[in-house]
Amino acid sequence: MTAALVPLTGIAKLATVAVTYVGDTPAPEPCYLSLNPSSHTVEIQPDVRRAAPVAVLGALLVWTHRLTGVTGDWWHTPGGDLRITLTGRGPCGVRFLVYSSITYGTARRHVALAKNARESVTPDELYRLALELRKGQTK
User: Mean pLDDT across the chain, nearest whole number?
Assistant: First the structure.
C-alpha cells in the first residue's frame, strides 16, 4: 500500500524548492538539509565543519544572498562556539533557515557576547566580521 495517511503536497513542494535552491546556489554543499512542512521551512547547514571561520561566514552569506527579508542571530554557546543562524524568504514563499558556527575565541575581539548570550545580527555585520577576521589572517 502506497497511500499516505496525510497528503504530501507540502513536502513535495518543499523538496522541489529545496532541490532547485541547492542546485542554483554556488555554495558549499549542505551536510544537513531538513524539510519542515508544518512551518513551510527548509533548514540548511553548509558543510564547512573543518573550514576556516572566514569560509564559514562566507558560506552563510552565499547561501542566503538570494533570500529576502534576511534576519539573523548569534549565540555564544556554553561550549565556546558562536552559533549563527540566518533566516529569510526564498522561492514560492518558503522560509529558509541557514546555520553554522565558528569558535567564539576567533571572533572575541569583534563580538562581545557573554556565555549563553544571544543577539540579533545582520548579513552586513557578518560580512564585516569576515573582513576583520580575514585582515587578522593576513597580518
Answer: 91
Residues 42-46, mean pLDDT to the nearest whole number: 97
Q: Could you give the CA distance from residue 2 to residue 84 in angstroms, rounded to a whole number?
A: 40
Q: Which residues lie below 8 Å from residue 26, measured CB to CB, with a gap of 6+?
A: 62
The ranges assigned to domains in the chain are 9-137
Is residue 70's pLDDT more than 50?
A: yes
The reported pTM is 0.88
Cβ–Cβ < 8 Å for 14, 37: yes
Separation between Cα atoms, residue 23 and residue 16, nearest integer Å: 11
Provide mean pLDDT across the span 3-17: 72
